[in-house]
Amino acid sequence: MSFVITSECIKCEVCVNVCPASAIIDGGEQFIITDSCIDCGECQISCPIDAIRGVKKNNI
Ligand code: SF4
Ligand code: SF4
Fold first, then answer.
1. Which end of the chain is more exposed for a tag (fewer CB within 10 A), N or C?
2. Domain chopping of the chain, boundaries
3. What is the pTM of this model?
4. Span 1-49, pLDDT tens digits
């Protein structure tokens, strides 16, 4: 499982503060998850508006 932030993001910064890998950065219109992500899932759990989706890897 990897995680992506959708355009619903309101840039509240909650996920940035819980990420243990400092993998979430300001991408302009929304926050984005970088390659530093260790797939822990904490951001998805913490997002107040459910803007972070878990996606299966190698699902092409
Ligand atoms: S899954 Fe974990 S490491 Fe990856 S962006 Fe979310 S909180 Fe950070
Ligand atoms: S917690 Fe959710 S709404 Fe807040 S910055 Fe992160 S993805 Fe965006």
1. C
2. 2-55
3. 0.92
4. 899 999 999 999 999 999 999 999 999 999 999 999 999 999 999 999 9
Q: Whose CA is nearest to atom 1 of ligand 2?
A: 47
User: Which ligand is in closest contact with the Cα of 24?
Assistant: 1
Torsion angle, alpha carbons of 43, 47, 50, 53, to 10: -10
Q: Closest ligand 2 atom to the C-alpha of 47?
A: 1
| CATH 3.30.70.20 correct for 2-55 | yes
pLDDT recorded at residue 41: 98
What is the rounded distance in angstroms from the CA atom of residue 48 to the CA atom of residue 50? 6
Q: Ligand 1 centroid to 46 CA: how many Å?
A: 10
Distance 6 CA to ligand 1 centre (A): 14
